[in-house]
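Hey L., structure's done. Input below.
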Amino acid sequence: MRDPLAAFVGCNRDEIALLRNATEANSYIANGIDLKPGDEVLMTDQEHPGGEHPWNLRAKRYGIVVKKVTLPKPVENPAQALNLFSDAITPRTRVMFFSHISTFSGVVLPAKELCALARRKGIISAVDGAHVPGMMRLNLHELGCDLYSSSPHKWLQAPKGSGFLYVRDEMIDRVWNTIATEGWDDVKLRAERFQRIGSSNVPALWGLRASIQLANDIGMDRIEHRQLATTRPWRRSHVVEVPLHRQRDHRAVPTDHPRRQQRRLAGLGRADQRNRTPRPLPARRPTRRRMPLTVLGRQQRTPRRHRPQRPEG
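Output:
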């Protein structure tokens, strides 16, 4: 099961552990790294609870320090984000943890440059990539991170319960198991020892394999291009704050419009073809709901759960 996933995300099979989701993988990371009281973990103020709270638990229980970088809204360019992290590093910083794509704003952080900064400073780089597979191309070896977590059930449309943890080969022996069973200390297993949790959901893993095959058949270059093309008119209309990354714009679009107008999102492609820019929608309290933008070819109708409900009577 690990071979097609490793090829899809650009790493070796012995660096991959098949888990349930990014939250579980992030807990493995926070629990598995040796840290002393007073050691600092540096993250952004836009982390998902499943990425932030494993470190908060470690801080409350063992006395490490969680520090946060405040990301501007929008982030103007990669250098701005890089400088914010660089300025926040202290002699006690041991881990840099950040989301590759923020779950709150959709900003794509310059992950490769941030990981290189961490490497130069002797800091462990851990990346929450829950929204990346299926949204944009990913090559973990090129990225240069030490650890990477993800949830392919999101944009790759794999079954829930098919997450993964990547641990760079040189880091594997430095990470402790969170769950222990036979083989937990067998160094020959490499990253496989992190996925030894007893019985696993094998049908979900077969579904992950099928999702990878589908993405490969379509082509990740084509999918990534589609993300940009679909979100471009919304960026022009200023419906949402757009944290521009000059090389890779954001893909995940947080919605801030009322439910009754969500159907308009499904018509973006047609509006764009007519060279019409959708009108800005009234400002409403932002939600964490995200609209799937990975559909290729003909635009589809809005899923039933997103359609407005007719009043009874």
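The domain at 2-212 is CATH 3.40.640.10 (Aspartate Aminotransferase; domain 2). Residues 137 and 221 are 7 Å apart (CA to CA).

-- N.
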